[in-house]
Design brief:
Blueprint lengths: L3 E7 L9 E7 L4 E5 L4 E3 L6 H26 L1
Antiparallel strand pairs: 1-2, 2-3, 3-4
């Protein structure tokens, strides 16, 4: 089983297309996004607005964390 990071996005805006999403970021760089209301998978290119912003911020955070871990390990 792959290890992954789980994040949950809940939209505060009533007009938002995506209200409740679960993001699973895997160590190999892949991601799984599930709409918790319908239990349907979503592709990152389908995201918009606050959900897209959330995805981008978490992806950047995980990339930075991975780089810092590698710097410490190989320095």
């Amino acid at each position: 089983m792959k290890s992954c990071y789980h994040f949950r996005f809940i939209a505060e805006d009533a007009k938002s297309l995506w209200k409740d999403l679960t993001f699973r970021f895997y160590r190999d760089g892949s991601v799984t996004i599930t709409n918790n209301d319908t239990d349907v998978r979503i592709h990152p290119k389908q995201l918009s607005g606050a959900a897209l912003d959330f995805y981008i911020r978490k992806r950047i955070y995980l990339i930075k964390t991975d780089l810092q871990e590698k710097i410490v390990k190989y320095a």
